[in-house]
Amino acid sequence: MSGRPDADLPPDTQTAEETTEDARQDAPVDSPEDTLVDAPEEAPEDAYEDDDEHDDEGDDEDLLAARARRARWAAAGTGAVLALAGTAAALLRAAGTAPVLVPAAYACGAAVCALAAVLGARGRTRRALWTTVAGVMVMALGDQFD
Fold it and tell me: What DSSP state is assigned to residue 50?
């Protein structure tokens, strides 16, 4: 099976290979020179020496710093939100008729998520991720006792 459809696709949905193959089949070749593709002109080697826009080292460092900042904010924010949710759940469960183990588990899970928020704010994002997972698991385990 060739994988080609029976009907021709519109030009905007054809792949580059299909488009060039169809163009080669339809266009008559007059001479071997017509089949050669001209190489694009290259800029001289010293064209970008004085240009500050092509300084990749500074751009990479800025990009890495921005990614690290976003990761810290995400880890700290997620830990804080889950800590608040766990605290609220612990208070609601403590006010109800749930066994004592349930609000205690929610409170412990909230404390672990708060620790994850602190770790995330300090830049320990991998540890914060796994600490957040552990805190949510403690809260889920506490919910199972209900």
Answer: S
Residue 60's alpha-carbon distances to 25, 40, 55, 125, in angstroms, are 45, 28, 9, 20
The CA distance from 68 to 62, in Å, is 10
Give the pLDDT confidence of 42-79 residue by residue, as tens digits: 555 555 555 555 555 668 888 998 999 999 999 999 99
Quickly tell me which residue has 């766990």 as its tokens: 86
CB neighbours of residue 46 within 10 Å? 7
**Residue 128 clears pLDDT 90, i.e. is over it:** yes
Element (H, E) at 44: none
Q: How far apart are CA 111 and CA 83, in angstroms?
A: 6
Question: 7: which DSSP letter?
Answer: S
Cα gap 62→27, rounded to integer Å: 49
The Cα–Cα gap between 140 and 102 comes to: 10
Is the pTM of the predicted complex or chain greater than 0.90?
Answer: no
Report residue 51 as tokens. 């240009």
